[in-house]
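Retro notes (design track)

What went well: tokenization of the new backbones is finally stable.
What didn't: we kept losing track of which sequence belonged to which structure.
Fix going forward: every design gets posted as structure first, then sequence, in one message. First example under the new rule, 401 residues:
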């Protein structure tokens, strides 16, 4: 979906296909038929943007076979789909029964991460619509925080500088400007947008910036306006933003709130949980994970005894559907998304032109909330995109055909 910003630029809205598990090119092609085109039809649009997630094997197949890449581009066109952004964070196995910590491997100190991201950039250059010259890729925020020392940090910086050089060369060859954004995530070396400023300033290349995920932003209790103003002041480019909402518990000390949260404690994904010390007089307990925060690596850990202070709200890294907040006594951080979006595209010029709805946890929701059929999933994704569309038009953007 495309929108015209009041300054005349085009803002793209897509939904991320990492919600549909597929490791191979054949699986990606099936996604387009079984999921993406049905979502487009529900929205009544001739064209729908999708943020492709391409696992290692699918990316390798496309970059090593030009005819396969042309075939994917043809299939996208045939089904009324377009791609301007890729999700390059998960490397493989994102549809496995247990993902958890595996999603952070390989990290930017491992050569496989550079090779994979380079392949994704080459693929994206071949998938961009004819009238679009800029593409974006979101990626791991350097590494998970453990076992990341200065030696590995230097290796990661070198890899990102190498990537920037390759992206420069790719633009010279193809005329396509591909940019990569580190995606801050709780528990990682770069947990917050503030953590991203120093390494990105050190790299100092306009093709390497940040991907602002509004679920992660909220989970870390970052104020959207403060965070985005700091990025602008540091001249860190916002390559893309993922529109997502976290799980919010206002009164985690109550037994009924703990019971409601426990329904979201599931075995597939990691649900880092945070509370803000700035909001609580009780500063005991909980691992210090970032300035002003206490947290646990997973929701189940937070629910055990006094692992976290419970005198102020908790937020958990669980991407809940944008249009359907959990039932009371829980809610979502949709207000944080709205505030971030206002700052991202509501001003005189957009801070980013690539927006991506990214709720990959539909099948990890409590059983009574999960879609039971493919059609229900398509209905839900279409409802999320409708909400995002309405937020954009409320900010003065005009939907394009």
């Amino acid at each position: 979906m495309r929108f015209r910003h009041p300054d005349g630029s085009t803002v793209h809205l897509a939904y991320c296909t990492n919600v549909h598990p597929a490791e191979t090119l054949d699986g990606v092609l099936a996604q387009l038929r079984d999921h993406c085109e049905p979502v487009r039809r529900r929205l009544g649009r001739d064209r729908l943007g999708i943020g492709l997630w391409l696992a290692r094997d699918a990316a390798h197949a496309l970059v090593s076979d030009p005819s396969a890449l042309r075939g994917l581009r043809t299939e996208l066109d045939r089904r009324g789909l377009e791609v301007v952004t890729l999700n390059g964070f998960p490397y493989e196995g994102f549809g496995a029964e247990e993902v958890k910590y595996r999603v952070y491997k390989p990290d930017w100190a491992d050569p496989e991460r550079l090779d994979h991201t380079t392949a994704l950039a080459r693929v994206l250059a071949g998938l961009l619509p004819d009238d679009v010259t800029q593409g974006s890729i979101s990626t791991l925020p350097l590494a998970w925080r453990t076992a990341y020392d200065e030696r590995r940090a230097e290796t990661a910086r070198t890899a990102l500088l190498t990537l920037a050089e390759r992206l420069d060369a790719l633009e010279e060859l193809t005329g396509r400007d591909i940019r990569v954004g580190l995606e801050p995530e709780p528990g990682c070396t770069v947990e917050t947008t503030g953590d991203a400023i120093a390494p990105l300033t050190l790299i100092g290349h306009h093709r390497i910036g940040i991907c602002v995920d509004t679920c992660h932003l909220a989970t870390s209790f970052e104020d959207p306006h403060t965070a985005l103003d700091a990025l602008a002041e540091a001249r860190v480019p916002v390559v893309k933003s993922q529109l997502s909402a976290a799980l919010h518990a206002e009164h985690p000390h109550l037994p009924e709130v703990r019971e409601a949260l426990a329904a979201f404690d599931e075995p597939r994904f990691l649900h880092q949980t945070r509370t803000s010390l700035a909001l609580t007089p009780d500063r005991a307990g909980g691992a210090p994970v970032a300035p002003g925060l206490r947290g646990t690596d997973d929701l189940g850990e937070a629910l055990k005894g006094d692992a976290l202070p419970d005198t102020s709200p908790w937020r958990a890294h669980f991407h809940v559907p944008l249009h359907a907040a959990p039932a009371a006594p829980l809610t979502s951080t949709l207000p944080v998304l709205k505030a971030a979006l206002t700052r991202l595209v509501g001003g005189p010029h957009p801070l980013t032109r690539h927006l991506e709805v990214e709720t990959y946890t539909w099948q990890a929701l409590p059983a009574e909330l999960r879609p039971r059929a493919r059609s229900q999933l398509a209905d839900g994704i279409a409802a999320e995109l409708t909400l995002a569309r309405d937020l954009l038009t409320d900010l003065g953007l005009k939907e394009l055909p």
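Added context from the reviewer: Residues 150-174 form the longest helix (25 residues).
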